[in-house]
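Batch manifest, entry 17 of 40.
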Amino acid sequence: MMKCLLSLFAFTATLHAALLVHAAEDLTVLPPPTDEASESGLVYQALQKRAHEAFAKRKEVYENIKTAEDCEAYQKRMKDFFRTQIGGFPERTPLNPRVIGKLKGDGFRVENVIYESWPGHHVTANLYLPTTPPPYPGVLVPCGHSHNGKAADGYQRACMLLAKNGMAALCYDPIGQGERYQVLSDQPNEFFKGGSRYRPPHPQVQYYCTAEHTLMTVSAIPLGSNSARYRIWDGMRSIDYLISRPEIDGSRIGCTGNSGGGTLTSYIMALDERVQAAAPVCYSTMYRYLIDFNGPQDGEQNIFGQLAYGMDIADYTLMRAPKPTLICAGTHDSTFKIDGTWELFREAKRFYTRMGYAERVDIIEADAPHGFTIKLREGSARWMNRWLMHKENAIFEGDLPVFTDEELQCSQSGQILLDAGERSLFEINDSLNQQLAKERAELWSSGDLGTLRDQVREVSGIKRLAAIPRPESKVVGSIERPGYKITKLILTPDHGVPLPALLFEPETPSGKRTLYLHGEGKQVDAAPGGAIEKRVKQGETVLAVDIRAIGETSRKNNRKIGWSHGLLGPNYHEWAVAYLLGESMVKLRAEDILVATRFLSEYQSKGKPQKVELVAIGETAIPALHAAALEPDLFSEVKLSEMIPSWGEVVKTPETQNQLINTVHGSLKVYDLPNLITLTGKDRVQVSHPADVKAGLATRKP
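Output type: structure tokens
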């Protein structure tokens, strides 16, 4: 009995001592961040620097535009790029328009209308018509980020003002707003999820429109598209509807919208030649002011590779020169900074002057915050009046009572997605992917893995390992544990973001080397008795690394994306700037993995690099699979856990969780995740605990 008690006492003391040692251990590698780095993060700062380099290159190109011919060549190049990057446009199909109801106003009338922008995918809109004899100019009014879309007071008043002054106005609900939300719940919601301040326009609506727009972008990116494509197409089809009306003079079309509607006005006016007069409101600034202050905005406002190509927000105005354009802005706009607006206007004024029409671009600055405020509504109406009616009336708004949301309702249920036969954007994307799946199957049936690997490399943009310089390495500390040592390392690749790492070296190494990557950080499985220690005690040398935007390099508290409801993860802005630069976080992380693998392979190898086992869990799994597929000779085996099975699941699922950071633009045109397993070698890849795209990556299927 006494021996048992002594043994128990000895075991307890040993365990207590081990716990004390572990409690004293600090597995942090990087020094505490500065105040600036703490706010924006090391990865964002590095990408921000690259963005500024892109801005400088674009400025050089702009300053070399000297003649009208130079301007026209620049416009064509930008328009072609823009169309390509959003995925082009589909063929026009019948609109099948219907007038649902009619309203009478003071000096105007309203028709509630529905038409199809895609087969089975409807647009809900209000057409404001003057009471004077036709024909009328037609002005498209894309909505900003109002929860109730076209029914918001400011958009109603802008349309009424146009109609009372002899111009028809068509205001439609964007997808993800008003009557066109695409992510509905089965249960009623009193407030938008994640807050108790705003009530949704319908009980089954869950998320702010900004979150919905970005979820649509998550779905579209693997197809080589973006929610901007669908938003622009809605606008173009709305112009189709306008000019189909006998009351409308199709040669006199205008476009004006605020905030997100200013974005859409800018896009549509750049790409649709029918827009003769345009007035984007509270959007026009230079991208530098977004990236340096609030960060890139929601999904449709970021075009793949635009900064790397040299396309800034100013270019939407330059693309349409010399057609009349009025820049409308608010002095106190906290998102689209007024200093950037004036910089944009100066670029536009010089460009229009080079083309011989300096008077066709102008600016209004209202002493007001962000919004379609009264001075901007009046200013845009006067601009349309000047260029579409050829009149110079001083238009003032006065008192304009608005209609209720119910009076302007077009759908039967209040949400068009609940009406019979309606196709969601996610269903459209799924059907597009099904067609691509047939093309992929034919491509991959060729069996030429070398050619297929080259195509994957081209789409993903991941560099060959031979083209990536070796990182600098620095030892910053060590920890002794029974039977092995942990060395704290900082690997600094050529991109400049330090990658913190823990190198676990056993006293008696077996020669086996393992790169261990965890989506929640290198420290997760690094505790005594954890998964890494079990490997080390079997003689493995293990390198655990935080690749970019993981662990110590992840954004800790991004207060600027509260609108995302947590659906997009903490590193949305890192993803967005990389995307604007023409890269994915998958690419950046895969290159980090290759750099770390080579470091481990060559570590104390006496000139004979060793193959490495690759273990990747959660958010690191997809970039790890890319690294292994493109450089398979580096790896002995690959073990992936908590990875989604296919991007096809992302495309068709409305409510995904933290999947944006795992997307690759246009990947499904060439490959899906199972194809990467083929490239790596099915006999060398083990996949366990597949993740559900609807849940956090750490949530496992039963």
